[in-house]
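Duplicate of earlier report; Transaldolase input re-posted below.
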Amino acid sequence: MANPNNPLRKLNAAGQSVWCDNIHRAMLTSGGLLTMIEDDDLRGVTSNPAIFDKAIGTSHAYDALLERELERDRSQSPRDLFFALAIEDIRDAADAMRPVYEKTGGVDGMVSLEVSPDLAHDTEATLREARELHARLGRPNVMIKVPGTRAGLPAIEQLTAEGINVNVTLLFSVERYAEVAEAYLRGLERRLAQGQPIDRIASVASFFISRVDTLLDPMLAETRPDLQGRIAIANAKLAYQRYKRIYGGERFEALRAAGARPQRLLWASTGAKNPAYPELLYVEELIGPETVSTMPPATYEGFREAGTVAQTLEQDVAEAERQVKALAEVGIDLAAAADRLEQEGVALFVKAFTNLLHHLEAKAARLAA
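Output:
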């Protein structure tokens, strides 16, 4: 029987959905994912190229699937092979999460698969691949991850208008988040104008946390050490205030009346990368309703063991505003920092994806031999 004092279950009860930022074939074949759903009230799963690179490139768990794909068609490229493996994982995870999807009325129970990161600056290619992945997955509780780049914005709008669930990833600034929300609203409005239903569309905007401090902390070391480890949280708190204004306004009210749901903010990059910071800093400081926290395995397990649940997201908002404004006083341009983080984030995912394809190519050659 599930422990009612499990902090992860308490986090869900507080209005913040717990998702896990990890997927691996072993989670699916061992029953580990089902145990997390039953014991922890897990509400969703996210993936990215780095997660798949680690899962596929460093284990033999995918060898049988890879052999099966090679027997089916030896002419497949490493990219084809990757998506064949990834789609099987995402489908199986979505099937495991389906009862959560049904129980929450389609709010949670979601599993995300990202378009190829090397398409981040190509709107049309992103649209083509997102549609193809959505069709191949064939599950109502999957989200297609699309980077929130300039090129991603029109893709987010179009996919929403087509009724495809979108997880917008790599968001670092409040301004870009607002542009993403605008794209989502336009997509809903277009779909509604076409007489199409909008009541089963789910979307999240993945706002990255710890990477902001990782970049800014060294810049603050000399001038404002008191702000080290604080800007990422302050930035997220201000994004949530913008969320409340957008989805509490008249424009969304008309969509809500037709069954639309807000595009929830999802806190990503929640693991503390600085060992001097508390392990659960970026989870415990950002707890609030109508949000999602996706946690890497170590953070997830740490919160399960010792997490503290309190409504922190709207505490000290005025202080968060002062902290962000203080950056300009010491010559730090937060918008420029966010642009840099977006570029670096895309580059890191492209690198992980390239490594993954090389691993697959080498593994396929070994299996063929």
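The chain has a mean pLDDT of 96.

Merging into the original ticket.
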